[in-house]
């Protein structure tokens, strides 16, 4: 066996290196092969296959995040008003994803959209008069917008029984409830979509190298040298003028290793999760929806309880959760030293500053970690009163790293969303955080490409418009365009409308 000093380092060049084999890199690879078909693009993924970490079907909720049911996108103000602004923005971004996927279907890059996307109604469900009033206000605020115009609202047990029988079965009819429903909702298998996008990009020349762990990012003149190690110990370096770091939770330490100024002050707080899963065909057949409730006091937005229909590997199943957990790992397959190694002199102040304002989150996490299986089923039964523990099993979901961002007033702030990082010279881009990143990855990648390649924007614009017609043209401000886009993408993707 060759010694470390005698081992040959394989060197090559590329126009772009994408680190990480998840939905973000897959989306970027698919976009770049359309925008720059002559570029040499290399993808480096440490696992044996792509789409196995956060993008894997059971490692995320699979909700096509469009703010149709997620109540955390429409917070209620102290005066009782509900602002639709963030929900509209999230929906706009998801429409870009639908448009891009439709383009790939129409050009033959995606053969069968039913392999990754299905129509599943999105329902918001609340209990109690105060919450019902909030949901009514939310419905009033959103239904005026063309992207939410078909959303229905009810306080009727009988009507909700038609929408989602498992929610009302065994529930007292005297209980005050309210719900909204949108038939435009979807379930997305992002793991399968990741594999489909990489397959399409590979056919156009993108080189996807799996089983390669990136060990170093170093400047080589105007380029970056990306060093990786294979499973057999071989070392290679790819030199490229642009690098995208889409490695999920591992994106933070990789950009720290690169030493870019833009990552200074950023930290991460890992949160894991678990689901209850049901495969009983009789129960599965009685539920066709994603039903989202309100988060518990102190719970992060990613822990909003929901009972979901899922389509994974050709099977329809149910999922309830998530139940928050904790691990110091930044990836499901990461190391227990990940969190400690991410603490640097440049971010320790920010990481310490987020603790006092988030004590309720700490309390919530401790309570979740101590829950028994019986207690988890009890939480399910609040949603689904007829649930039987024997029909459900506990599975581990994906690992998320919530962003701790620098804030000049509070030193650091804990964010629950997606953070795009780009260098001033346009040589590197990266993505931190969690939801709704997978659903809105097309918007995020297009925004990144504008930031890092401003000189190419005018040349790319006609191609971008052909792939994503509403880019920089808000559908929410054009009712006819919104209807046309929803109708077209539904037809191409085989969705209900």
TrEMBL record:
Record's keyword terms, sorted: FAD, Flavoprotein, Oxidoreductase, Tricarboxylic acid cycle
Gene3D superfamilies tied to this protein: D-Amino Acid Oxidase, subunit A, domain 2, FAD/NAD(P)-binding domain
Pfam families: Mqo
Documented EC number(s): 1.1.5.4
GO biological process: tricarboxylic acid cycle
InterPro entries in the cross-refs: FAD/NAD-bd_sf (IPR036188), MQO (IPR006231)
Catalyzed reactions per annotation: (S)-malate + a quinone = a quinol + oxaloacetate
Record's keyword annotation contains Chaperone: no
GO MF annotation list: (S)-2-hydroxyglutarate dehydrogenase activity; L-malate dehydrogenase (quinone) activity
Cofactor(s) the protein requires to work: FAD
Top-rank taxon, per record: Bacteria
Metabolic or biological pathway: Carbohydrate metabolism; tricarboxylic acid cycle; oxaloacetate from (S)-malate (quinone route): step 1/1
SUPFAM superfamilies with a match to the protein in the record: FAD/NAD(P)-binding domain (SSF51905)
UniProt-listed NCBIfam families: mal_quin_oxido (TIGR01320), PRK05257.2-1 (NF003606), PRK05257.3-1 (NF003610), PRK05257.3-2 (NF003611), PRK13339.1 (NF009875)
Family, as annotated: Belongs to the MQO family.
Protein name in the entry: Probable malate:quinone oxidoreductase
């Amino acid at each position: 066996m060759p010694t470390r000093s005698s081992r040959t380092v394989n060197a090559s060049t590329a126009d772009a290196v994408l680190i990480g084999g998840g939905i973000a890199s897959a989306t970027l690879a698919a976009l770049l092969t359309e925008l720059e078909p002559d570029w040499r693009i290399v993808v480096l993924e440490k696992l044996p296959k792509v789409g196995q970490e956060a993008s894997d079907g059971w490692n995320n909720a699979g909700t096509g995040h469009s703010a149709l049911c997620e109540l955390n996108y429409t917070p209620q103000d102290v005066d009782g008003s509900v602002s639709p602004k963030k929900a509209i923005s999230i929906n706009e971004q998801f429409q870009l994803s639908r448009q891009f996927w439709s383009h790939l279907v129409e050009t033959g890059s995606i053969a069968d959209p039913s392999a990754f996307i299905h129509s599943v109604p999105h329902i918001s469900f609340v209990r109690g008069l105060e919450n019902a009033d909030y949901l009514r206000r939310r419905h009033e605020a959103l239904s005026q917008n063309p992207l939410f115009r078909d959303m229905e609202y009810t306080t009727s047990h009988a009507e909700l029984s038609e929408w989602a029988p498992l929610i009302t079965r065994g529930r007292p009819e005297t209980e005050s409830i309210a719900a909204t429903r949108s038939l435009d909702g979807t379930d997305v298998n992002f793991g399968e979509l990741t594999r489909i996008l990489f397959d399409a990009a590979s056919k156009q020349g993108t080189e996807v190298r799996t089983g390669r762990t990136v060990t170093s990012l170093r400047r080589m003149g105007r380029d970056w040298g990306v060093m990786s190690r294979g499973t057999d110990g071989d070392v290679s370096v790819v030199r490229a003028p642009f690098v995208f770091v889409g490695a999920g939770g591992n994106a933070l330490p990789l950009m720290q290793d690169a030493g870019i100024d833009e990552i200074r002050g950023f930290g991460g707080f890992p949160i894991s999760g678990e689901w209850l899963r049901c495969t009983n065909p009789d129960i599965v057949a009685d539920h066709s929806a994603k039903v989202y409730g309100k988060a518990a006091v102190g719970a992060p937005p990613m822990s909003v309880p929901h009972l979901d229909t899922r389509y994974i590997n050709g099977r329809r199943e149910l999922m309830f959760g998530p139940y928050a957990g904790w691990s110091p790992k930044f990836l499901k397959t990461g190391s227990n030293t990940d969190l400690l190694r991410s603490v640097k002199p440049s971010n320790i102040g920010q990481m310490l500053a987020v603790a006092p304002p988030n004590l309720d989150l700490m309390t919530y996490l401790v309570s979740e970690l101590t829950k028994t299986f019986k207690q988890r089923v009890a939480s399910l039964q609040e949603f689904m009163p007829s649930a039987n523990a024997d029909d459900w099993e506990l599975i581990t979901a994906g690992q998320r790293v919530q962003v701790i961002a620098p804030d000049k007033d509070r030193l650091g702030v804990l964010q629950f969303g997606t953070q795009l990082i780009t260098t001033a010279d346009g040589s590197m881009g990266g993505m931190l955080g969690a939801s709704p990143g997978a659903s809105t990855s097309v918007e995020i990648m297009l925004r990144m490409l504008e930031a890092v390649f401003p000189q190419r924007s005018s040349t790319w614009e006609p191609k971008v418009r052909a792939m994503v017609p509403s880019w920089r043209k808000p559908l929410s401000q054009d009712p006819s365009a919104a209807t046309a886009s929803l109708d077209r993408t539904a037809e191409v993707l085989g969705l209900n409308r």
